[in-house]
Amino acid sequence: MHWLEEELEGLKGQNLYRRRLLREGLIDFCSNDYLAFKDHPQVVEEAIRALREYGLGSGASQLVSGYTKEHKKLEEKLAQFKGTPCCVLFGSGYLANLGTIPALVGEEDLLLSDQLNHASIIDACKLSKANLLIFKHRDYEDLEELLKENRKRYRRCLIVSDTVFSMDGDIADIRVLKRLSKEYDCMLYLDEAHATGVLGDRGKGGLEAFNESWEEFMVIMGTLSKALGSYGAFVCGSERLCEYLINRSRSLIFSTSLPPSVCAGARRAIEILEKEPWRVERLKNLAQKLHSSLTELGFEVPFYGTPILPLMVYEEERAINIRDRLLSKGLLLQAIRYPTVPKGKARLRLTVSIKYKEEEIRLLLQSLKTPPTPQNPSLSPSL
Questions:
Q1: With a threshold of 0.85, does the pTM exceed it?
Q2: Number of separate domains in the chain
Q3: With the C-alpha atoms ordered 336, 342, 345, 349, is the resulting torsion angle positive or negative?
Q4: Which residue of 18, 82, 257, 379 has the fewest CB atoms within a 10 Å radius of its CB?
Q5: pLDDT of residue 377
Q6: What is the DSSP string of 178-198?
C-alpha cells in the first residue's frame, strides 16, 4: 500500500490535500444551517422528547422495524409543505439521489442532467446505467436540442437538475424545465437540498419561487440537513411514486432508517418555519447585505439572491492561504477546490445564516480586509 503515500503527496503538491477541522472554538461561516434551526430550543427539545421515548437509533430499516410514528408524521408534514400527495424519507441526500434516480430509469431510458449538478446526482446517473446526456449549465436551449434529437428513441426520459446549485448559489429555471418535461413526455427530478427553506416567500422551494405547482410527472427531492437543521433527506411525489420507491429503492430498503429523534426535530423546524416566515426574508436581506460588504472589500462574489456566497479566488493555493489566515483568527470559512469545483475555480464558500451575530460579521469582514495578490487579470486589482 505504498502507493497511498504517493497519492497523498501528489494531492499536497497540487494544493488539493484535505483534512478535517474540529469546529469547536471556531466561528462557523460555512455550515448550511441557513435558518438557525440546528440549535433552536424548540427543535432540540422535540428531538430530546423523541430520544427519550425511542432511544438513540431506529434499530432497523424502514421495511423491517425502523418505521415509527415520528417517521410517518414527518413524511406527512413534508408532503403538505411541498404540496405533494406523498413523501418517503432517506438516510441522506446522497442516499436519496442514489436510490431514487436508478429506480426511475435504466438501460432502456434517457437521462439528461445539468452540467453542474451535485456529485450525488452524477453518481446516481452513472449507477442507473441509463443513456446519459449532459446539458450545458442552465442552458435550456441546449437541453431542448438534446431532447429533439434523442427523446423518441427511448422508453422513459428523466430530466435532473438542482434547484439551487450548491457551489455558486444560482437557480434553475423551474418554469422552463417543467414546460420541456411536459412537452417531451419526461419525468422531472428536482434536487431542492439548498432550495428548501430558502426559495419562495415561505421557504417552500423552487415551485413556490416560480409560482408553479407540483404535477404527477415531477419528483421533488430535498434534505433535512440544511435549512431545517436536522439530518436525512426526502423524496416527495405521487402516492404511486412513494409505493414504488419503498419497493425498488435499494438505498431505502437496505439502510437503517433515520433515528426518530432526528425526524421529530425536523418536523418541529418545519412547524416553526410555517409560523415564522420572517426567517426566510431575514436570510435574503442578510445575504444581500453581506454580498454588498464583500464586494466593497474588492472580492468577486457571484450573487443570485440565495445564501451561498462564493468568494472567487481561483487559485487553489490562494484559497488555502486565506482559509488558514482566517483560522488563525478563529474563523472557519472553508476553501473549496477541485474536484468539488473545476481546477482554477477555487473559492471560499460563505453560507449565510440568520444565526450570525453582528460582532461576528464585523470580525469576518475586518479579517478579510487584508487582500491577497491579484488573481485573474481581468478582475479587480484590489485582490
A1: yes
A2: 2
A3: negative
A4: 18
A5: 34
A6: HHHHHHTT-EEEEE-TTTTTT
